[in-house]
Amino acid sequence: MNDSFIFGLPSVLFQIDNVRLIYNFTSRTTTNSPGVTIRVPGFGNTTSVEFLDPSEASPGHYFNHIVTTSLLPLGYVRNETVKGVPYDFRKAPNELHQFFLDFQALVESTYREAGNKSVVLMTHSMGGPMALYLLHRVKQSWKDKYVRAIVTLGAPWGGSVKAWKVFAAGDDLGVYVLPAHTLRGMQRTSPSTAFLLPSTLFWEKDEVLVSVPGKGNYTVHDYERFFHDMEFPEGAAMRQDTGSLMGQLEAPGVEVFCLHGQGVSTVESFYYKEDKYFPDRPSLNYGNGDGTVNIRSLRGCLRWAGKRLRIGPKRRIRVEGTKQSQPVHHQEFPGIDHMEILKDDSVSDYITTVMKTINNIR
Ligand SMILES: *[C@@H]1O[C@H](CO)[C@@H](O)[C@H](O)[C@H]1NC(C)=O
Ligand SMILES: *[C@@H]1O[C@H](CO)[C@@H](O)[C@H](O)[C@H]1NC(C)=O
Ligand SMILES: *[C@@H]1O[C@H](CO)[C@@H](O)[C@H](O)[C@H]1NC(C)=O
Ligand SMILES: *[C@@H]1O[C@H](CO)[C@@H](O)[C@H](O)[C@H]1NC(C)=O
Ligand SMILES: *[C@@H]1O[C@H](CO)[C@@H](O)[C@H](O)[C@H]1NC(C)=O
Questions:
Q1: Number of H helices, E strands in the chain
Q2: 279 prior amide bond cis, ω within 30
Q3: Between these two residues, 168 and 349, which has the higher pLDDT value?
Q4: How far is the CA of 86 from the centre of ligand 2 (A)?
Q5: pLDDT tens digit string along 282-334?
Q6: By mean pLDDT, which of 32-46, 86-100, 124-138, 294-308 is the weakest?
Q7: Mean pLDDT, to the nearest integer, of 334-354?
Q8: Which of 156, 185, 211, 316 sits at a 20 to 30 Å CA gap from 70?
Q9: How far apart are the CA of 81 and the centre of ligand 3, in A?
């Protein structure tokens, strides 16, 4: 009989005009624009994570391909042994307290409904750090009982330079989660973008990621100065609120299947040809990644297996004590970008194999 399966990933459906958040420097939290209420629909139901677009039109397909090709053929049933866990992806974990309580309760109820069978968590993009945030905060005995494994797709374990570019240029997030046009105009106000800025655990203190003539160079230690220079104090505050939520990226303490694309041109740093272009018109330098997340961040899960992390032809960074005894499986998919990973057949075949192994199906 199958283990159950839970998706942890973002999904919010809303009017584009209404997605802006307003930051309150006193409470250090965000609220919707006046008069706007945003509801995260269908918690537990898979519909909200299979389709981002209520019309279920093809461009809005999200987890639908994986559910249809990897899970249903193995006997999984929507809303019974497959559940969806949508959240307001504009917010970072510090503002999603109720979500994590609901998420934990859903894991427990799904376990019971399935006849006391542990669940597999599956995430895309920021869903990976979100699930890790929960796993950091529950007891090992809870994980041993309820969580069979976690499968992460394209998780930005150490953030992404693209998030920084989003704050600067304010344009398409290219997206952790949704097609760009859905998001335009909101990313700068989203604490989740600050949460996903490149981490000091993954970039070194002498690596210049942003360079502005007449202003200077910025590394991952210079967010405060950067946001000051672009006269965006909310950015600095939101980074302070969210920059340490992942701790030292301690291991999840459950078996990991870490899947991601690579070999896709990804923003690695940016600079300004003249200071009059700052901050809206950066010039971009590209490197390896999945088009949204840099390769070193995607490979962050390797720290838990204790492997050395190669981050470039010359540099290596030291791996801290974040290893775990549970296996860490790592699989890269060349040429597959951040969103394609949800639709690619080699990925869904891999997931099918993983799920068969977990369920002892030949
Ligand atoms: C900001 O938060 C503080 C403290 O919670 C509250 O008293 C204040 O009314 C809020 N400001 C606005 C504009 O909502
Ligand atoms: C899940 O949500 C969809 C769309 O809102 C709805 O049509 C469907 O009936 C729901 N499924 C269950 C089992 O509640
Ligand atoms: C899932 O289906 C059950 C009935 O089988 C229903 O009670 C529940 O509301 C559904 N949940 C969602 C989120 O659709
Ligand atoms: C699941 O565990 C509970 C508590 O230990 C027990 O009462 C129940 O009978 C178990 N259910 C199944 C299907 O084994
Ligand atoms: C900024 O960094 C570049 C190399 O990336 C270096 O050539 C330049 O001197 C630096 N400028 C300042 C002001 O530190």
A1: 13, 14
A2: yes
A3: 349
A4: 14
A5: 999 999 999 999 999 999 999 999 644 455 555 555 445 589 989 999 999 99
A6: 32-46
A7: 95
A8: 156
A9: 11
Structure tokens at 146: 């309820």
Tokens standing for 62?
């999200």
> What residues are labeled active site?
125, 290, 338
217 in contact with ligand 5, CB cutoff 6 A = yes
- The answer to whether the beta carbons of residues 155 and 290 sit under 8 Å apart is no
Q: How many CA atoms lie within 13 A of 32 on its CB side?
A: 13
Ligand 5 close to Cβ of residue 285 (< 6 A):
no
The DSSP line for 304-333 is HHTPPEE-SSS-EE---S---SS-EEEEEE
Q: Which two tokens stand for residue 147?
A: 């969580």
Distance separating alpha carbons of residues 39 and 58, to the nearest angstrom: 23
- Amino acid residing at 32: N
In a 3-state reduction of DSSP, which class is residue 10? coil
- 3-state DSSP call for residue 22? strand
* Nearest-10 Cα torsion for 216, 222, 224, 227: 50
Q: Is 34 in the pocket of ligand 1 (CB under 6 A)?
A: no
Report pLDDT for 361.
84
Distance from residue 115's CA to the centre of ligand 4 (Å): 7
- Residues paired with residue 55 on neighbouring β-strands, in sequence order: none
For ligand 4, pick from 1, 116, 145, 146 the residue to mutate: most ligand atoms within 8 Å of CB: 116
In this structure, what is the dihedral angle of CA atoms 335, 173, 6, 255, given to the nearest 10 degrees? 60
